[in-house]
Design brief:
Blueprint lengths: L8 H25 L4 E2 L2 E2 H31 L4 H17 L1 H12 L1 H19 L12 H28 L8 H29 L2 H21 L16 H21 L3 H23 L4 H15 L1 H8 L5 H9 E2 L11 H22 L6 H26 L5 E2 L1 H28 L5 H25 L9 H33 L31
Parallel strand pairs: 3-4
Antiparallel strand pairs: 1-2
Length: about 550
């Protein structure tokens, strides 16, 4: 270990992250050993899920922070190809929860699905630490594809189901539910921030195996927390009906078969593009078919839903440049003072922790005065801010000179506007899907939301590929040109969305929405269009 007098900025950042992690673990240990069934007004099961999810996000976002560098520097893919692989990977991560959630709801229950998903994730992160000699001719690259496949399918079993278990700890009329999800999603962003810093620090200073190995240890820690804390769940997440062992093992076999399919699929990004296009058209066509079977008001609400969903590919296509082309830009063209580029991926979750409560308060303050923007208007604001994030980076970099290293303050500015944009769209969209969808189509609509988010992640790969130019290698001016183009496209789309938002708001028929919960509960649950903490990436 280096003498503290020799520490650079990166060393201090990593040390601070370790201290924060230790503080959280100390709090978790205190909660675990206490005999009382609740802590700070919430059941202990909430905090167990908090720490299990914190560790899972630690591993996922930590690995994500250095994946693009691993692709370009170790496996020697071109910049364009690396961005495309990255986009294909993240898009599949958003699709597999449809399978995992369905199997959990119908057969396994959320607890066993999360446990199985965690085991797959742990295996995937362990395989990521197998480096080989590097280069695409190295047979070990097949282990890398397998690692991505295990992580993708594992996320599918874990991602949605652990969030469902939080709600199962409370009755539908329990006014603590919103606060519980706020605490839980804080765990997501704490894990994302700390994991990104520590994994990127080790991976980019000591070696890939150290970074990916730490991500694997984080996932293993999450599994241990989840297994040891089973009793605190008080029966939450159990299977809907008793399941025969043979059938249960058969479902696990389906999971392993999915790993084999994804292993082949992730290597052929053009196939993923075709499948996304065909299945996307079929899905939206089916939603339209179901819409026309409804009466006027619910039908128009479905039109509003489709309008909001259709904006996902553009927004997430730009936002998800963060882990791809923006990561490469930060690494090569920004004056980072020696801080590993991957660490800058922690800016977004840190901003979320700081800004999400402010946004929640802002919407409530505006709502009490009758001035809160509608959901479509918030989507328009999100697109405008995302476009502005691109333009601020472009204008700032060009003002300082393309040949000069870009000041790091512009990276912070880019992520600031990207985060405020995310807080105007991601939680608002999830809330709108939940509020507007007919009860018998609720799961389908939520699936369509995440599906179009997956399409957006693949679009991100295609945009990132474009920053590589014709020869696949990124240039600073080439990236700035692409970012400027899509910045203006996003702002143009934002203007169009804001212009039609009054019409879309009319389609929502908010004045005639009825809640099947007890009267008065809507003031505690879902009354605001924005959820206080983003679920992205989150989420």
């Amino acid at each position: 270990m280096k003498d503290m007098s020799l520490w650079a900025e990166a060393d201090w950042i990593a040390a601070i992250a370790v201290v924060v992690l230790i503080v959280f673990l100390a709090i978790g240990s205190k909660i675990a050993v206490q005999k009382e069934p609740e802590f700070a007004g919430h059941p202990k099961g909430l905090y167990m899920l908090f720490f299990a999810e914190m560790w899972e996000r630690f591993s996922y976002y930590g690995m994500r922070a250095i994946l693009i560098f691993y692709l370009t520097q170790h496996w020697l893919f071109s910049d364009g190809k690396s961005n495309l692989i990255y986009g294909a990977y993240t898009s599949l991560v958003y699709i597999t929860p449809v399978l995992g959630g369905w199997l959990a709801d119908r057969y396994l229950g959320q607890r066993k699905a999360v446990l199985f998903g965690g085991l797959l994730l742990a295996a995937g992160h362990a395989l990521m630490a197998v480096e080989g000699t590097g280069g695409q001719s190295d047979p070990t690259i097949n282990v890398f594809w397998a690692a991505l496949a295990f992580i993708i399918v594992g996320s599918g079993f874990l991602k949605a189901n652990i969030s469902v278990m939080v709600g199962q700890l409370y009755s539908m009329t329990d006014v603590r539910r919103d606060g519980a999800y706020t605490i839980f999603y804080m765990g997501i962003n704490v894990g994302a921030a700390i994991g990104t810093i520590l994994v990127a620090y080790l991976g980019q200073t000591l070696g890939w195996g150290y970074g990916f190995g730490l991500a694997g240890i984080g996932m293993l820690a999450g599994l241990i927390v989840f297994v040891l804390g089973k009793s605190s769940l008080r029966g939450a997440g159990e299977a809907p009906i008793p399941l025969a062992k043979g059938k249960e093992y058969g479902l696990y076999g389906v999971g392993f078969a999915a790993v084999a399919v994804i292993w082949a699929l992730v290597q052929y990004q053009d196939v993923i593009q075709t499948l996304l296009a065909i299945s996307g058209v079929l899905l939206l066509g089916y939603v339209l078919f179901e819409s026309f079977k409804l009466e006027k008001e619910p039908r128009e609400r479905m039109f509003a839903i489709l309008f909001l969903i259709s904006l996902n590919p553009l927004f997430w296509g730009l936002f998800e440049q963060a882990g791809g082309s923006m990561n490469l830009f930060t690494d090569r063209f920004v004056d980072r003072a020696g801080v590993p580029a991957g660490i800058f991926q922690s800016i977004n979750p840190i901003y979320i922790i700081l800004l999400a409560p402010l946004f929640a308060g802002l919407w409530q303050w505006l709502g009490r005065r009758g001035k809160e923007p509608s959901a479509p208007a918030k989507f328009g604001l999100a697109l405008a801010q995302m476009g502005f994030a691109n333009l601020v980076l472009v204008w700032g970099a060009e003002a300082y000179g393309v040949v000069a290293m870009t000041p790091v303050i512009l990276v912070f500015a880019y992520y600031l506007f990207a985060t405020t944009a995310e807080l105007c769209l991601s939680p608002v969209g999830l809330s709108a899907m939940n509020r507007l969808a007919p009860k018998h189509l609720a799961s389908l609509i939520m699936g369509a939301w995440f599906y179009m988010t997956a399409v957006g992640n693949f679009v991100a790969g295609k945009i990132g590929e474009a920053t590589g130019g014709h020869d696949g290698e990124m240039t600073k001016q080439g990236l700035l040109d692409v970012y400027e183009l899509f910045g203006w496209i996003a702002i143009g789309a934002a203007v169009a969305v804001l212009l039609v938002s009054p019409l879309v708001k009319k389609w929502m028929h908010l004045d005639t929405l009825r809640d099947d919960k007890p009267i008065g509960l809507d003031k505690q649950e879902g009354a605001d269009e924005a959820y206080p903490i983003t679920t992205r990436p989150a989420e």
